[in-house]
Amino acid sequence: MDTNYDRYGSAAIEAALCGVNPIVAWKKATKELSFSDSSQEKPCPKNAFLGLCEDGLVKGIKADFYLKKSTSKKNKKYAIAAVKLLRTNSTLSRNELWNHIAEEFSLGDMPHNSQMDVVLGLWSEKLIVKKSMTAHNKYAKTAIECVENFKESNCIKEMWVKYVKENFDTKSSQEKGCPKNAFLGLCEEGLVKGIPKGNYTKSVKNKEYALQAIDILKQNTFLPKELWEQLELGDKKHNSQMNVVLALWENDLILK
């Protein structure tokens, strides 16, 4: 692996270890490394770092919204794609990573601008989490446990009942239909690894929301609320369906 990342890679490492809000941490780290004011605000590496933080990919930093709504998410996409590449082949160099990114996103001859240095710096210091945890709430945990413990003799509907009771104390939470039917809808279509296709739910809407979300995730990465907004359902409130979908997606439990 190429560990000869530039000073933006060093800044990312320092920022990740600061233990404060990543926006503040980035400014602090770049200032301590004697970056000029313009270099501190250079968008490509900064947004690559904040994008990884947003997605829960940097150890010790809680997934949250760190990029301004008006900020392009392209550098976040490049950084996340680079992490996925390193998980497959950790020996890729800066240039090799960028060549893959340029091909994946049809960037042509667009030059690299330190985004990969940020990723390589964090990767080299083991500051990238093994799997993203942006999606995880107790319904997401329930879905993962159902899949990871499923055997051919099991009924996936009964598995949901078993694990949701282990994760929730109240009957109302245990019987909440939205996350359950999003999960069972994906299972019904044969999209969940290890779960046979079958008839598992009478839900139409929550199943459809989950299926649409999978199609969206094939193009981009989102936090649960962002993913819900992509469905364009107006004022309809999110009810943990996307947490379930994202947990399965991020843990490589969806057939792609």
Label this structure with key terms:
256 residues, mainly alpha, 2 domains, elongated
Describe this structure in words.
By secondary structure, the protein is mainly α. It folds into two domains: 7-124, no CATH class; 138-250, no CATH class. 55% of the residues lie in helices and 0% in strands. It is built from 14 helices and no strands. Helix 8 (138-148) packs across helix 9 and helix 11 (177-188) packs across helix 14.
Short description:
With 256 residues, this protein is mainly α.
Break the fold down into its secondary structure elements and pairings.
Blueprint: H1 7-16, H2 22-32, H3 37-40, H4 43-54, H5 74-88, H6 94-104, H7 115-124, H8 138-148, H9 156-167, H10 171-174, H11 177-188, H12 205-217, H13 224-230, H14 241-250
